[in-house]
Amino acid sequence: MAVMINIQNISKQYKDSDSQSLENVVLQIPQQSVFGLLGPNGAGKTTLISILCGILKPTSGSFEIDGSSSVQNPSEIKNKIGVVPQEYALYPTLTAFENLMYFGSLYNVPKKELKLKITDYLTHLGLSNFMHKKVQTFSGGMKRRVNLIAGILHNPKVLFLDEPTVGVDVQSRATIISYLKELNKKGTTIVYTSHLMAEAEDFCTDIAIIDQGKIFIQGTPKELIQNTPNARKLEEVFIALTGKNLRDVV
Ligand SMILES: Nc1ncnc2c1ncn2[C@@H]1O[C@H](COP(=O)(O)OP(=O)(O)OP(=O)(O)O)[C@@H](O)[C@H]1O
Hints:
This protein is α/β, with parallel strands linked by helices. It has a domain at 82-194: Rossmann fold (3-Layer(aba) Sandwich). Helices cover 36% and strands 23% of the residues. It has nine helices and ten strands. β7, α6 (170-185) and β8 form a beta-alpha-beta unit. α3 (96-106) crosses α4. The longest helix is centred in the C-terminal third of the chain and has 16 residues, at 170-185. It is globular. It binds adenosine-5'-triphosphate. One of its GO terms (molecular function) is ATP binding. Residues 5-237 form the ABC transporter domain. InterPro entries: AAA+_ATPase (IPR003593), ABC_transporter-like_ATP-bd (IPR003439), ABC_transporter-like_CS (IPR017871), P-loop_NTPase (IPR027417). This is ABC-2 type transport system ATP-binding protein.
């Protein structure tokens, strides 16, 4: 197995917190996998993804992406990854096209190439008729699709998505997942978080279940189901490992 992301003993404790949000996380994410990072609320998924994207610094530990080290070559990593955050990162008063021209220019994609790409991606994701409309008039599903395009304009080798289908209708979700599958087929490694177990079971080639900052288990959906007594689907594996207790914290 060729490894795309190698995570070595990452721990994270936020400044104002008395417990660790990640504790000695060790993970290997295979090249060209669709890797699902699953866990209950507060498990540490966003924290881990934010560290891998360079948005947060770990308290200890390091990682490599495509052979580039987070300690020695963080700027090399920046060019290899794309990020689709949970919150919309779009300017509401700009059009979809203007938003994407802005995000593409941050990665120095040449203007002519950028225009062609934006038109192509918006068309593929069913938004060709809305290209020049302001994003503030868009539905949640339309914003999610523009948010996704913003993360892939520079052809990243690895794409991180934090709950890319949250709050969207069935149609938008199907469009997003099938587009991501196409990207993956062409070579992009995808790391994604979700609370939707059926979606993850269908979409992911590999899964890690995280809870209270620790990785519990890693494997293909099939392996995880086969290795859990009486489980027929991923949701049952998830409940068997993480329990039924609510994870509300204030
Ligand atoms: N900025 C912060 N300061 C202090 N603690 C934080 C901060 N951000 C997250 N935490 C804590 O770190 C832990 C992990 O949070 P994180 O957001 O990574 O979980 P998550 O798995 O992404 O949850 P969700 O599914 O709700 O998005 C939680 O206990 C959370 O309260």
